[in-house]
Amino acid sequence: MRLMDDRTIKIGKDLKHKIWAGAEKASTFDLPMVSVIVVNYNYGRFLRQAVDSVFAQNYPNIECIIVDNASTDESAEVLLEIAADYPSAVVLRRARNEGQCAACVDGFAASSGEYIVFLDADDVLVSAFVETHVFVHLSLRLPVGLTSSDMMQALNSRIVLSTIRGDNAQALEKTKNAADLLRNFDSICPEFWPLQKMDASIKTQVRLIEPMNVASWVWSPTSGNCFRRDALDLFIGDPALPGLRYAIDTYLIRGISVLTGSVLIDRPLSIYRMHGGNGFTKHPHLHGVLNYDRFGPNDLDLRSREMIIDHCVANARMFNSRLPEASCFIRALEAINDIWPPLRSRNNAAKSYLAERLETEADALADVFGRKLVAYWRARQRHSIIRALKAWSARLLPRK
Question: Does residue 298 fall inside a structural domain?
């Protein structure tokens, strides 16, 4: 038993990497470790199936970390059974339920994988989930911060849909569907891929989302994504993140993708279960109809975007040292600010949120980027709300 940050307890035996017992190793190198972090609060009735799906993965190198948010249902008994059946699983018990984001941060701190998957305890991974995501990451010509696969939607135990993502209309148009985006890792480096050869269709089922392109939500919810650890390092240390409570996917995906880009995988590799207690999705999707209340209490998109801007501004020196040029920094913040609906200043509706932050932090930013460049950025933002409104009005006008 080991206390972690005075809030969590590790249960079970020491964590050992799951080793694939098949083919002999051809070298001293191995496939990357993938940490699957299962976050649970009062989902004891679903938790076992979620964890079973982690240990049923085709991929060899996986560690499973379960973070329980002080559940009051049957979760405690289920966790004891899991610890007995899966000795390598790590269970972290939190003393208080402080929300999904705080639990994910704790799970990340306890993990060791080069890739991270956050799995909600009421969702399920298909057995090919980790294998496919790692294969795509290893095959990519452009190293992005995350991959996002489609998800099935289930009402209790019945599959209703095989998609959850909003990008499928674009995928049908084959926009940015690049067959040359992948160099199949199993073909070019077969000695490092001891698993089955990936079927050829994967090359036509990936789509690149370029950095700075976050205009519409095209990714899957939490359980459909696989993050690079070093990409998460850019944002998961934000001290404000635990205060978001939930919707960690909105914050991390938008923040990471706007800087590093992301890749969509056109395969449903996990199951999103709707059971009446979901904080976000209330019913299966219908094309062209939202399945949540926009700007309702569960829609934290605006708040997460403000947090991304705050985090980047507060850590401007670090981001300036990591990005190729200063223009990447301001273009990323402008992209986050100008997503519809554009973020407005809390003190002056005529200004954007970014313009307000550039003004209040002008001196600190000038120490990093220089006064002339910051003054130019501030000038660009003076009428950003008007520009954004005009741009979106033009999109809504009927075509002649």
Answer: no
pLDDT band at 22 (very low <50, low <70, confident <90, very high): very low
What distance in Å separates the CA atoms of residue 107 and residue 241, rounded to the nearest whole number? 14
| pTM, two decimal places | 0.86
CB 2 within 8 A of CB 86: no
Average pLDDT in the 48-70 region?
97
Residues 250, 319, single domain; the answer is: no
Distance CA 252, CA 256 (A): 6
Cβ proximity of 338 and 388 under 8 Å = yes
Backbone angle region of 63, left / alpha / beta, with phi > 0 → left and psi within -120 to 50 → alpha: beta
Rama region for 156: left / alpha / beta (φ>0; ψ in -120 to 50; rest): left
The answer to whether the CB of 233 falls within 8 A of the CB of 163 is no
Q: Percent of the chain beyond pLDDT 70? A: 79
Q: Give 204-231 pLDDT, tens digit per residue.
A: 999 999 999 887 889 999 999 999 999 9
Element (H, E) at 265: strand 262-274
Domain end marker among 258, 293, 328: 293
Query: Smallest Cα–Cα separation from 298: which of 137, 112, 97, 100?
Result: 100
Helix (H) or strand (E) holding 124: strand 124-125
